[in-house]
Amino acid sequence: MRIDILTVLPELFEGPFNHSILKRAQEKKKVEIHIHNIRDYSTHRQKSVDDYQYGGGAGMVMTIQPIADCIDSLKAERTYDEIIYLTPDGELFEQQTANQLSLQQNIMMLCGHYKGVDQRIRDLYITKEISIGSYVLSGGELGAAILTDAIVRLIPGVIGDETSALTDSFQDNLLAPPVYTRPQNYKGHEVPEILLSGDDKKIENWRMDEAIARTKSRRPDIIRD
Q1: pTM higher than 0.85, yes or no?
Q2: CA nearest 89: which of 63, 56, 126, 50?
Q3: Could you give the CA distance from residue 140 to residue 132 in angstroms, rounded to a whole number?
Q4: What are the backbone angles phi and psi of residue 10, rounded to the nearest 5°?
Q5: Band of the pLDDT at 163, cuts 50, 70, 90?
Q6: Does the annotation list 133 as a binding residue?
Q7: Based on the domain organization, do 18 and 104 belong to the same domain?
């Protein structure tokens, strides 16, 4: 998989992409992540990428030219399965979307700033608009990092035990059940006996019951018939 991210703040990605699972995924050649500075494509003498919005109002808008030139340059080299714009008014990002995107070969992400990008960029280039939640951040970079992490960890070979990702919260429209490890007794708090029984079927049923109970209590909105 290849992921291209368009941003005006490329330095924000240095931490998230150079550690842990994302770093190992790149070292294993499971994913290529390329960061593109939109300012490099600006024809403005001062490399500006924003301007006042038509109709007046507070806040600047990201201009068409540098974004379009950057996208066109990348599209000339390969075909993209999705060109994603990170925006508060996009569709809410869910595990099912991460699953679908993990099957693609080439993905582009555009990180917005200020009051957003000129609508014509969205109309002409964007194939999917995604929001990571009902709140506003200073820019789309953190959202792009979240999408990248959620997608890449699902690629076969990235995580040592691939079945681990398939039992995470939200995979079956359920939250994950409680988990325990050593010691068996911590200050009088015991691990549930069923987990020590060695009976795989009973343990599986217990985990399912706990997952359903936890989901009904904490996130009843994700349970689907």
Answers
A1: yes
A2: 126
A3: 10
A4: -60, -25
A5: low
A6: no
A7: yes
